[in-house]
Amino acid sequence: MDNRFATAFVIACVLSLISTIYMAASIGTDFWYEYRSPVQENSSDLNKSIWDEFISDEADEKTYNDALFRYNGTVGLWRRCITIPKNMHWYSPPERTESFDVVTKCVSFTLTEQFMEKFVDPGNHNSGIDLLRTYLWRCQFLLPFVSLGLMCFGALIGLCACICRSLYPTIATGILHLLAGLCTLGSVSCYIAGIELLHQKLELPDSVSGEFGWSFCLACVSAPLQFMASALFIWAAHTNRKEYTLMKAYRVA
């Protein structure tokens, strides 16, 4: 094996490993989108009601999003979290003289919630099903797992190529990484579109701002790494095969 191809193969493996770690971290963390709002200093009856509804299994889309807006919420692919005061008061203290502790509470999305239909008017089951938002949500949830699976399968093929001491099977690894990159890019695009459509339905309060979090950024970085690894795998395998064929033809001649 030529040193050029071996070097390209090693670099592609490193890029593949980094993108896999980034993608796995992105899937497993809760900071795809973050809301910033004024901290609620006391727990009124309304606040307590919102918290109870947020952790309820029957919370609909509007209910938990209202809580996310109000309590510095973060959203991942699997969980939603809010930040609330640690010591809850059932009255408004006369004046705060010292800082108070806050605690983050998270609730996981069930599989039923992941595949549940989204409505034209969030929270209103009589408003009709919003098919676009429904399938965007499902794609943003499924595509990262498909991407991760493709990379793992590609790594298995690459391992077999190393055992066989041949670069040619890594063409399949490159193609799988290309498909994985497309899945990651599709997931990111679906998430952006879904968030924009949601905010058109549920406008953010004046004192609340939102931004994409670092988990989302990891997914964004993972996609180009997968494309670069794919290009290196395919180039190394194709060029090595081509040179081997020319060398074999030369020997026959």
TrEMBL record:
Pfam families reported in the protein's UniProt record: Claudin_2
Source superkingdom: Eukaryota
InterPro entries on file: CLDN1, PMP22/EMP/MP20/Claudin
Subcellular localization(s) per the UniProt record: Cell junction, Tight junction; Cell membrane
Keyword check for 4Fe-4S: no
Primary subcellular site in the record, as a coarse category: other
Ranges that cross the membrane: 6-27, 141-168, 174-195, 216-237
GO terms under cellular component: bicellular tight junction; plasma membrane
Summary of the function given for this chain in its UniProt record: Plays a role in negatively regulating the permeability of cells to small molecules.
Family of the protein in this entry: Belongs to the PMP-22/EMP/MP20 family.
Protein name: Claudin domain-containing protein 1
